[in-house]
Specification:
By secondary structure, the protein is mainly β. The chain has two helices and 22 strands. Helix content is 4%, strand content 44%. The strands form four sheets. A nine-stranded antiparallel β-sheet has the order 7-8-9-10-22-18-17-13-15, with no helix packed on it. Strands 6-12-20-19-16-14 form a six-stranded antiparallel β-sheet, with no helix packed on it. It starts with 11 loop residues before the first strand and ends with a strand. Bound molecules: 6-O-phosphono-beta-D-tagatofuranose (TA6). The site of 6-O-phosphono-beta-D-tagatofuranose (TA6) has 10 residues, from strand 19 and strand 20.
């Protein structure tokens, strides 16, 4: 694994994922987080031996491709590229190979991705992305976007987190009540009360704007509550594909939709961020997972 010199703290180890791709494994009091260099994608977070994040049941660990699950990174655009065409959905950050630039025994790793000819051909700006992953009793992710060019740029970004919920029918999201949102699903719930906690009763793909910095995901099927605490995120996207869209998605088995939901900490659409030359924007997410027997 090129990048940082060979010495790593004892609780940070190099390994390979099932596809033979470089990954970093961080350990803290029996908990583990695995981060792939491809896309700086957090693949797993094992807390007290249980998976907090969700992975599709037919995962592909392929070079230059995101695994469906964990925390894929979205940058510099969210969703399909505005001009359509062949550019990758959700931008290119999740397909680049990132470099390990720092590790310490917290444990923390910092991975970096800078522009190159391929990215500039898709998006004509120079940038430095850094993702910090810190494992403690909670999991902390920090995505920093630096404008290393001579002109401002505007970008969207998201931590596209897949959460295991056991049974999505009983999962609820709290904190978005009354927050303005746009439903993007092609077959959404006909009528839902925006003043109530979010329930999943049909395909759900809602972009919330002007969100609070604390959200809560309750997953009774796992006796689990997850608190999401963010800084620098004005948007949140809550997504579940339901069966019809699941059939059109890669890496998914027909029943996978019942086991997860995404809550994405983001700045998208009207909340896209404009960054001046030499300036940076930081988006951070702290996940606190509480299981019933904790
Ligand atoms: O964030 C929700 C979403 O935009 C959905 O519409 C769905 O496309 C999902 O992201 C997954 O996108 P992906 O490109 O990872 O298959």
């Amino acid at each position: 694994m090129p990048g940082m010199d060979e010495r790593l703290p004892a609780n940070v180890r190099r390994d390979q994922d099932p596809g033979g791709r470089d990954l970093l494994r961080l350990e803290h009091e029996g908990d583990v987080v695995e981060v792939a260099r491809c896309g700086a994608q957090v693949l797993r977070w094992l807390r007290a031996g249980k998976d907090v994040l969700w992975t599709a049941s037919q995962p592909k660990y392929a070079t230059g491709q995101p695994v469906r699950g964990g925390v894929p990174l979205v940058f510099p655009w969210f969703g399909d590229h505005p001009d359509g065409g062949k550019l990758p959905a959700h931008g290119f950050a999740r397909t680049q190979t990132w470099q390990l630039v720092h590790a310490n025994d917290t444990p923390e790793v910092v991975l970096e991705c800078v522009d190159d000819d391929a990215t500039r051909a898709m998006w004509p700006h120079t940038f430095r992305l850094r993702l910090s992953v810190v494992l403690g009793a909670k999991l902390r992710l920090g995505l920093t976007i630096e404008n290393t060019g001579a002109a401002p740029f505007t970008c969207e970004q998201a931590l596209h987190t897949y959460f295991a919920v056991g049974d999505v029918h009983s999962a609820t999201v709290h904190g978005l009540e009354g927050v303005p949102c746009t439903e993007q699903a092609s077959a959404p719930e006909a009528k839902w009360d925006p003043k109530q906690p979010l329930h999943f009763r049909a395909e759900t793909d809602r972009i919330f704007q002007g969100v609070p910095d604390r959200l809560e995901l309750r997953a009774p099927a796992l006796s689990r509550t997850i608190v999401l605490q963010t800084t620098g995120a004005q948007s949140a996207i809550v997504w579940n594909p339901w069966p019809a869209k699941t059939a059109r998605l890669s890496q998914m088995a027909p029943g996978d939709w019942q086991r997860f939901c995404c809550i994405e900490s983001a700045n998208v659409r009207a909340q896209a961020v404009t960054i001046a030359p030499g300036e940076s924007h930081a988006l951070s997410l702290r996940l606190d997972c509480r299981d019933g027997d904790d």
